[in-house]
Amino acid sequence: MSDAAHLGLLGGFECTYAGNKIVLPLGAQRLLALLALRGSGMHRVGAAERLWPNSSPGRAAGNLRSALWRSRRIGETTLIECVGPRLRLAPSVCVDLRHIYCQVQGALKGQPVAADRNSEGLVAALSLELLPDWTDDWLVMERDRWDQVRLHALEGVAKGFLSQEQYLDALQAALAAVAVEPIREAAHRIVIEVHLAEGNAGSALQHYQRFRAYLHRELGVAPSPRMTQLANTLLPS
């Protein structure tokens, strides 16, 4: 809805209301982002400790009150609900990360994602990092979770494109997954499968050789037997 409040966490923090960007202090941004990532909400004390871990309890509580005052409402719209000692993001607030999670549920269950007109935007969103410029310790686990979700989703999208013989789109989705985690073999294997489906055995072999060299250089290990067996089919007999 045009008059709804939206929070963007992917690629950087952004808050919009009725289509207009809302400028908020960093403390308010961090509180909104924390609650957006904790769907069930948080106790006030826990939120204060998480957001200001190096401050005294009194100072952290004061910082929280200030952040809450600045971010609880936009105009007549409530962004943060206070239920006793607990805080939670109002259900009416749209969060880009939650929207993406809903879109990729099939991929997270190992199902290929249907390739349609929305897939290009989905790949672009899955390529974005979670609040990349923030250095908060509480974001480490959230970023790890997001990275695992987007890796599986990008691979699912790539498989969906591949099954429909949309090879360029499949390759772009698979390479986006490779960019997220270069050592992840599953994404590289999809890249090779796309090249093979197009009849480009040379490109498939070249990609395998680059991946093998990267693994050896970075980790001192070799690709899995499954990957090696796939590559052996490309070598001249």
UniProtKB/TrEMBL annotation:
Q: Which UniProt keywords apply?
A: DNA-binding
Q: Which GO terms describe its molecular function?
A: DNA binding
Q: Does the keyword DNA-binding apply?
A: yes
Every Bacterial transcriptional activator domain range: 95-235
Top-level taxon in the UniProt lineage: Bacteria
Q: State a single Pfam family of this protein.
A: BTAD
Q: Does the keyword tRNA processing apply?
A: no
Q: Which PANTHER family match?
A: TRANSCRIPTIONAL REGULATOR REDD-RELATED
Q: Which InterPro entries match?
A: AfsR-DnrI-RedD_regulator (IPR051677), BTAD (IPR005158), TPR-like_helical_dom_sf (IPR011990), WH-like_DNA-bd_sf (IPR036388)
Organism equals Geodermatophilus obscurus
Q: Mind telling me which SMART domains this protein's record contains?
A: BTAD
Transmembrane stretches in the record are none
Name by which UniProt lists this protein: DNA-binding transcriptional activator of the SARP family
